[in-house]
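Bench notes, bay 3.
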Amino acid sequence: MTAKEKILQAVETLPADTTIEEAIERLLFLRKLRGESSRQMLVILSRMRK
């Protein structure tokens, strides 16, 4: 599973009323658990914002 797929899976499981800040917090937590590089995560997040 690619990093992008992991991010999308994590975001899809969040409640509909989740704020962006809460979503980012969740992704950062998952990054720590799964050992994703912070640079890779930031690149994907910046692409998703566009």
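Next record in the batch:
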Amino acid sequence: MLQELINMLFLMLPRDEEGQALTEYGLILALVAIALIAGLTALAMALTGTFNRITSALGG
């Protein structure tokens, strides 16, 4: 009984795939943002180390 009701409700859902594409683009954008944040964090750490070595070499 419950399974039949679920199947009937599922068949009544609209077949619009535009929202699905928008969701996929959102997920891709989120993954790119996470990768960008990780890359910039690593770059910042490397630059901090470089500047610290330069400061030490200059006697500061």
